[in-house]
Amino acid sequence: MKNRFVVTITDVNGSKQYNVRQYVKQLLLYAVLFVFVVFFFCFISIQLLLDEVRQIENKRDLMQQEYLKINEKNEQLQALIDEKTEELVKVSDRVEDLEGIVGLANKTTDETENKGNDLLERVDLASITAAQKAFVMQLLPNGVPLRGNYRVTDEWGVRLHPILRRTHSHTGTDFSVPVGTPVYATADGVADFTANGYNGGYGIMLKLEHAFGFKTFYAHLSKIVVRKGDFVKKGQLIAYSGNSGRSTGPHLHYEIRYLGVDLNPRPFVEWTMGNYTKIFEKEKSIRWHSLLAMINQLAEIQEVQASLRKERK
Q1: Crossing angle between the packed helical segments 288-312 and 130-139, to the nearest 10 degrees
Q2: What is the bridge-based pairing of β-strands 189-195 and 167-170?
């Protein structure tokens, strides 16, 4: 009976004794078993939940990979759409002299070179007055559309596209300048197109239409200060440079087109009164002989009118 606690219960049916120590042991055993069973089921449940979580994470990773692939494909398609839109913007630029374009397209290299060589023979450049030269420089694009410091980052011609990573025709010259740099007209003209949208990668863009079939394009701008239909003078402030559209950094994209065909801006950018005849040798796709003859006639008429006004005074 040592270390035992006996409970005796007596009634009409007799007496019953209960060993409390044994019941405590059984209760403790049952309690331990219960805790173990609960722990076991919790462990199994947690493992099942962890497996489900891992499956969900795997599915999430697969979906992320698919999303990245789809997003990459979407970017490629968007780039192609932008490129096609850019081409449409170029095509939509109306052509005023179809015969001139056909002539440009069908000329052989020899014909082009001969025309450039014959120009100096057919045009008496020595007889052109300074006033006539200035008149030409006022009407046709020349010089840099910027003032101060700048850096040419991309020239006209075939290049590796910095975003699409493939070769394509770069239709202008890129000048690296900070956002907000003033942009000036390179010749007298009229604002033919002003748009603040994406414009097929050009971003905020301005087109100036000049005399005799010339146009200049100013792209990736931050702000345009002239409106469509405004007449502008050479050297007039027309916009501010930016980083809009499909651009890898702040710069001004500058184009020159003649009868819808893009020309290398470099000879025009370097064209000054001091090297007046250089442009005729470098840019041989333009019929300079007839063009200069027409401009010089207009300049002579202008000089005559100016002289008459002086006489009347």
Answers
A1: 110
A2: unpaired
CA distance to 111, 192, 293, 312, 313, per residue, from 215 (Å): 25, 9, 20, 38, 38
Global pTM? 0.60
Alpha-carbon span 122 to 104, nearest angstrom? 20
- Cα–Cα separations (whole angstroms), residue 110 to 105, 106, 118, 287: 13, 12, 12, 15
* Inter-residue contact 132 to 299 (CB < 8 Å): yes
- The continuous run of DSSP H or E covering 50 comes out as helix 20-92
Neighbours of 222 (CB within 10 A): 17
Closest CA to 175 of 271, 252, 270, 244: 252
Q: How far apart are CA 71 and CA 75, in angstroms?
A: 6
- 186 class by beta-carbon count within 10 Å (0-12 exposed, 13-18 middle, 19+ buried): buried
Strand, coil or helix: 211: helix
pLDDT tens, residue by residue, 240-265:
999 998 888 999 999 999 988 899 99
Question: Which residues, in sequence order, are CB contacts of 109 under 8 Å at separation 6+?
Answer: none
Nearest Cα to 173, choosing from 186, 190, 164?
186
Which stretches within 93-207 are classed as H helix? 98-106, 109-122, 130-139
Q: What is the pLDDT of residues 62-82, one digit of tens each?
A: 898 888 888 888 777 777 766
DSSP string, 61-118: HHHHHHHHHHHHHHHHHHHHHHHHHHHHHHHHS--S-HHHHHHHHH--HHHHHHHHHH
Q: At what angle do helices 288-312 and 109-122 cross, to 10 degrees?
A: 30
Is 242 in contact with 229 (CB distance < 8 Å)?
A: no
C-beta of residue 135 within 8 angstroms of C-beta of residue 299: yes
* 16-63 residue pLDDT tens: 766 656 666 677 778 888 888 888 889 898 989 998 899 999 999 889
